[in-house]
User: Fold this.
Amino acid sequence: MDSESITKTEFPEFNSWRDHWENPKQKTQLLSNSKIHERIKESLNDTTIVVLTSTLIENLERYSIIKSLGDINKDGINDSIIIIPELFITKENSYENGSSAIFTDKKIPRIRVDVPCLETDYFFPVDDINNDGNTELGKYYTSCSSRFKSLELISLSQEKWKIKGRVTFDVFYEEPEKEQRIEKIERNKFRMREITSENTDNIIDTWKTFEMK
Assistant:
């Protein structure tokens, strides 16, 4: 699952990771490519991020997909996301392949995960659950291989995305769609639908209620 990442100052070997995974020639090639989105180029120049340049070059079409989420921070400007392959490092472990969703609005912090299988369609706007002026997002999380995925509600608080609710998403039961499985009940309260089973004769279909604190 998602893990708390660390910054360059907390991890003294950060630069050695960068030297290994962010190929200078590939970085130059990407920065000179007029088809690369400006936000991706900004990430390549960000000294706190290690972009997996080989992965990016090999999958340029995939990493050029942009998805609109609407105006999630109510500044009158549409907000969209793009996926980048990023080295994911934690205090306990390091992951060679991670990913991030970066926003076209650079003021909105990126959303990091510890797996490479991340798509723009894994994110969708839900509602302003706590009435703070920001729209909470739904987030589909997959370990890339398991039948059991996760559906999360994430909220932007103090410039960090935090998980406020999570349920199992069993791919054996993909209907209704994920966008229909999170609902606001009232201020600071929402519910999430979980449909799963240990066998086909014992289906569990329940709404779980969460409170934002």
